């Protein structure tokens, strides 16, 4: 179910005053192209400037039936009709008409005017390129990456490669070369799309997506041909006036080759080196059965708005014209439902859209999906940024980063009423609508308008405010062009109504994905402000997940990390929220707090905050207190307060070795040696070793290059060094401490001793004990090398004064007699 929120993604709208009645529109390259209703004149307007000033106007050679603009090459391609014949033409250098350069050259594809026309200074002129075809063109599409042209005909698809031809040192012109024909018997596409080697074609109720690519083994098409409805009737012996509707069918990835549609390649280009290695791969096939909803006819249930949409991320080099897109999406729509698939890597259905009323045109972009009905522009959220974020960073779904899933339900943002919507196109953040107001249907419009009003279904949420501005519109004609600039601003205030509702989390996730799309696109100069808004959205999502008790409450951790908030700030936010409503803390917040304390990457907490953390865990998870109070970042907590909480835990849950060691450590911090000794005498040394295994932070803090002994470790060094060595050996054998970390631990512990040798005796004692206990061959060989060096150094210096080992040579010999490494140890001794 699509949720409708009272949000509007448009910042403003303007009317473009055209001199003639518009018939067709398209846009691209910052320009809006308006074809007159008669179809023989094109006007170009600058969309990036106020009032959309006219760039130029020029005449076409026939009546324009279809028009498209290519960003790469900045050319227009049209399907025109003249004298009952259909032509395909490309208009290049059209911007020269803005300087009132009236020269226009007309030529065939691949033919250039050589000779007097280009002698002397180059002539700047618009060129019209005639592109001959064996069959009349039905539809066409331009590749957003390369500028190549794909033309759909009745029985084939023709690919034209865009080339820049140098005529002399000063003049180069655009041209096309016909390089490939895809023969598809039985298919007359109504729409085609072309992007980065992907070819999509659409019939009334079928969509097929192929990919042209280099293949190790040339793979063209399956041997079976498609069975069209006529073939099915003939095979079944049914009468000619009996029609069989096909069933729904969806084939993804490798399974798409079983669709039964035969495709063959015919190379026509001059460059033939890559022919033998080129082939096609079937990517997607989907067939729909007619859906006669709301009394619609067969013609009204056909597919429309086929589109291949690339998405580029910021971690790639080059421009969007040359670099490989991170993701490619395929979108197509029925009148009552739309479908968006991801094509790169894994082919899968990302989102499906259920429209509240019949649509006839839709456009997909990075942030939104726009769909047209007769009198309304509908806006929906998309999941492009969620897919692209995972394509850019495969480790995004970890404890460090997070992103709302692309499987999240799509959201209907707004239904904006207009009069007589005809067509829709997009360029960047500009949406262009062509409307044709019918004066006679004014009463009908007034009668049906309230039925599509969103007020009855409005969900009022204050967590995020989406701001829009609609200017007053005064039309003088029945045909109006609207340009709408989508812009979303997010408020910094938190709503107090239903903060834990599904709708709240959904809306925050939508805002987060919109910001991700803006940052991934790298098309804005306000990157700093976007980054701040992105961090704020992460903080809001962290707050939501921190109060949840569901299985996804762990997402509070990565969202808080991405927010840039310190642990102290996160604690203050959650304490404030809980104090104003309930005293119980959410599972997500506790998960974040435990993970932050155990990771040892947070800042040291102040005494007040550390005491607050003690209160939180004593109420929520008292069993975690021994581990919490052992953290380096809790060192400023009041020792008396800590002992009080530990005494309360022991009274309610009974004694344990780890709890007793924690009490002893904090008795040392208080300077109460009597209480310390009392706690240490409660358990034997072997049980205390198990307690240190359960909580290593009782002895050391930090990992890697920074290992800091605790106050308890310093005291054991002075009073019970044998227990200390045994505990560190046990930590190493239980993979709690690495050998290098143990070395640093003893080096730091003994740095103030009077010993002169490079390796302190306590470290040598640790090596000797670990050699006896370890069963790892690599560790044994390393220890043998180290101890051999120490013993040789002592023998050569013959000065062992001041060295007091834990075990004598006789003790070591006795310890290793039953060891499998006794030969090696005896060799050392």
Automatic annotation (TrEMBL):
GO terms for cellular component: cytoplasm. It comes from the Eukaryota. Signal peptide: none annotated. Residues 3-449 form the BLOC-2 complex member HPS3 N-terminal domain. InterPro entries: HPS3 (IPR017216), HPS3_C (IPR029438), HPS3_N (IPR029437). Residues 488-816 form the BLOC-2 complex member HPS3 C-terminal domain. This is HPS3 biogenesis of lysosomal organelles complex 2 subunit 1. It comes from Pygocentrus nattereri.
